[in-house]
Amino acid sequence: MHSKTRDLFIPDSGRKVIQLVLDGLGGLPDPETGRTELETANIPNLDRLASRSSLGRSLPIAPGVTPGSGPAHLALWGYEPYEIEFGRGVLEALGSDFDMQPGDLAARANFATIDADNIVHDRRAGRPPDEENVRLCQKLREGLEGKLPGVELFLLNGKEHRFTVLFRGGELGACLNDNDPQREGLELLPVVAGDTASERSAELVATFLSAAREILADEEVATGMLLRGFSGLPDLISFNDLYRASSAAIAAYPMYRGVARLVGMKVLGSPHGIEEEVQALEENYGEHDFFFLHYKPTDSAGHSGLFDEKVSALEAFDAILPRIEALEPAALILTGDHSTPCIHLEHSWHPVPTLISSKLALNKADAVFSERDCLGGDLGNFKASEMVTLAMAHASRMKKFGA
């Protein structure tokens, strides 16, 4: 966002904005039917909303660039991803309600099945249940006690195979590569420092990984771990200061609560599923004027290549949409952080179908909510970092620029 734009926002106007982010929303045509997931789903409420909204496609990072979840969400809130350096670790730590401090080093971790030759056989260790995650983390805590002198070690439990590792002790540089080769059947990568400030960190992580392998040696499945997204706390202007707003975030997954907390949003609890998320929105609607609500199932199905499951996830969200509309925000955004087409199995570079509903929308009465209809919408293709400004304009929360 340009620094001059900040002066244009009108604070405390009473005109509320809701941003609904369906993770991995965008898709591509199924080879058998020629229809995308959105075009296949029975989504009468989304189609009705699209017919009276401004439509377009948001570009998370840049043409042809596939976004990670963290940078993609920052872009949705007006932060330029290329200007902010951080990894997944800080988001996972903040999402776990951990109070990170300057100088801390965090990484996202997966329990994994790794053999004696450091070959990765299962990057998710069979997706253990959450209670097994608790047991394994506790086993590591007890076994690692005293193994890292001069450093505090924190292991934050997550879901299934996921957890967070955090080191505290002096200024720990975060310029480290992942040890995750990203594919099974490949050897673990050595963690090396990318600058002199991170050399101590690289030695520390190597000691930690070696000790952890010894502790997990008697396990049948979770015999090692993958570390990704080493990072410390970045210095950011808060969302509330950028937009003169009081913002709140609602998300079931810790990582998305973490990225919201990173920009200064108030995180409303730890809901389980869309029903609890919408309930939190309803119960707190009078307390804030900007709400971010995250929906994960669309992305999970995309990564698994389950076309019908992604269609069902879209239909489930469609069914609860009228409760959100009933709150009557001045502007309602519905978008995704990125596209996760089922035929691709991963995040993709494709622009994301987006709608902004307001009394000032230039609507097309016969439009439905799909990639193709958004392609021809009045918003056109626009940078995701412009989305909140567009929504604030739709909500009449911006002053005129110049005389």
Question: What is this structure's SSE topology?
Answer:
Blueprint: E1 17-22, H1 37-40, H2 44-50, E2 54-59, H3 69-76, H4 88-95, E3 105-114, E4 120-122, H5 130-144, E5 152-157, E6 162-168, H6 199-215, E7 224-231, H7 239-243, E8 247-250, H8 254-262, E9 266-267, H9 273-283, E10 290-295, H10 297-304, H11 307-325, E11 331-335, E12 352-357, H12 371-375, E13 380-383, H13 387-394
Parallel strand pairs: 1-10, 1-11, 2-13, 8-9, 8-10
Antiparallel strand pairs: 2-12, 3-4, 3-6, 3-7, 5-6, 11-12
Helix pairs in contact: 3-8, 4-8, 5-6, 9-11, 10-11
Explain how this protein is built:
It is a single chain. This protein has helices at 37-40, 44-50, 69-76, 88-95, 130-144, 199-215, 239-243, 254-262, 273-283, 297-304, 307-325, 371-375, 387-394; strands at residues 17-22, 54-59, 105-114, 120-122, 152-157, 162-168, 224-231, 247-250, 266-267, 290-295, 331-335, 352-357, 380-383. The chain is of the alpha/beta class. The protein has two domains: 3-84 and 236-394, 3-Layer(aba) Sandwich (Alkaline Phosphatase, subunit A); 98-231, Alpha-Beta Plaits (2-Layer Sandwich). The two termini are 21 Å apart.
